[in-house]
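Hi Q.,

Before the meeting this afternoon, I wanted you to have the FE2/S2 (inorganic) cluster prediction in hand. No need to reply - just skim if you have a minute. The sequence and ligand are here:
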Amino acid sequence: MAEEKKLFKVTIDNITTEVEPGTTILMAARKIGGDIVPPTMCYYSKLQNTGGYCRTCLVKVTAGSTADPRPMPKLVASCRTAVMDGMVVENITNPAVLEARKGVVEFLLINHPLDCPVCDQAGECDLQDLSYEHGTEGTRSEFRRRTFERIDIGPYIQLHMTRCILCYRCVHTANQVAGSREHGVLDRGDHAQIATYIQQSLESPMIGNVIDVCPVGALTDRTFRFKNRVWFTKPMDAHRDCPHCKGSVRLWLRGDDVLRVTARKDQWGEVEDWICNECRFEKKKVSDWVIEGPTQLNRHSVINAGHYTNAAKPTEFLKEVMNGHAPRLLLDIHTVSGVNMVDLNDLPGPATGATFNGNPNAFGHNPTDVKEGVGRNMAGTDSTNPNTP
Ligand code: SF4
Ligand code: SF4
Ligand code: FES
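Predicted structure with the ligand bound:
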């Protein structure tokens, strides 16, 4: 008879659960779910050896175990601390933890630019959510923020080092998923940065996954940059027969245009199945995919704004009053507007007024799409847009 495994009892914010020995406090909290789950910026359950860098997942252990119920003297990183039988942990019920997390957020933002209005990650950014939920309104830092030039790493990815929080997730992804790493964290302390030696391209066919694991807008998809705000796009789950990966993806549509392809993410914002570069960057037509249906998003996500599900559809009566003729016979939109002739995906830059006024191939240049640090200011922002501080 198989030997029954002994489970450890752990209590987090007054809720008790049982987990296998070796489970971390974070994973025990995820098993319970809800508000008591500590936020994570560097841990990634789908990768090995992650966690321990950002300190956003700090918790207080008020009793170490049944055998030794003394509290741990300092707050601990829940993603790296294993539970013991009888352990008691406090997260949102402990004001000192919340205060410490505020401090961590302040440090994470100390060199971070005010790029949200122009950043591709806005609307799905872990740092935005973290700052909103745990941050303070201002900063006490009076020093100039450090800035970097943007770097194209390979044909598909651009690195905005100014936004990087040095979580190491992309480094582990390149090591463990893409199978070859040509980039890493160089230098130490205030000089530390993600870099490729002599700007080597990252050419692995799975390297695009670093974009999905990046919790901020530091690694951006060059085929999507500045194409749209994520909350204007509609996510759809889709799949295709792919020789390199499972081919299960999420398409981000605007009308019939596939503006972006990403991996599907679970409730913790982590990739479910890694996808290859071909699926991510080269299959940008609806006809390339078998659409499964709209993605079920967290109802609090800003991406849900304006997307209605289960809405009662008004009765169609136009056809009835038109003796069975289709309403489009009344008005062919193409004859009065160029809007539907525009394929945003084929434009090398952002659309302009001219694009929608008779010249569907016209495109402009995003004010932030400049090199050599033009327009940098004290706040370290990448933007030359006068509306961005
Ligand atoms: S990564 Fe982009 S969206 Fe996130 S906080 Fe920074 S600037 Fe804002
Ligand atoms: S580029 Fe993104 S994933 Fe890589 S270390 Fe920086 S924040 Fe993390
Ligand atoms: S998530 Fe635990 S230290 Fe970063």
